[in-house]
């Protein structure tokens, strides 16, 4: 049995399945001690900088893999994963709480 992937922080994963790149972007969990700083300020600035860097990395990686045509890529927000993405895993648990958290994130 494979170990279950679990994390308690904002995360970004790049998944290369050969013909497509998936860039999965996680979330910030809400907690009772959350303050305005937790959802804005430097924490959100760092998160958005990491997201931009991950998108640039995925784009560069795709061009290296296939310089002539590029590789198709898709950004996936935690809680809003399409079935094509979740079917890549042996098990997937949809998290309604995460869907709501990512719906609140301003672009």
Summarize the structure.
The chain has 107 residues and is an alpha+beta fold. The chain contains four helices and three strands.
Topology:
Layout: E1 12-16, E2 20-25, H1 36-39, H2 41-65, E3 72-77, H3 83-86, H4 96-104
Parallel strand pairs: 2-3
Antiparallel strand pairs: 1-2
How is this structure best described in words?
The chain has 4 helices and 3 strands. It is an alpha+beta fold and 107 residues long. It has a single domain, classed as Severin (3-Layer(aba) Sandwich), CATH 3.40.20. It has a 3-stranded mixed beta sheet with strand order 1-2-3, with helices on one face. The radius of gyration is 15 Å and the shape is flat. The termini are far apart. The model has no long low-confidence stretch (mean pLDDT 79).
- H/E series, N to C? EEHHEHH
Strand order of the biggest β-sheet: 1-2-3
Percent range of helical residues:
25-40%
Rounded Rg? 15 Å
Could you tell me the mean pLDDT? 79
Output the CATH class name. Answer: Alpha Beta
Keywords:
107 residues; alpha+beta; three-stranded mixed β-sheet; 4 helices; 39% helix; flat
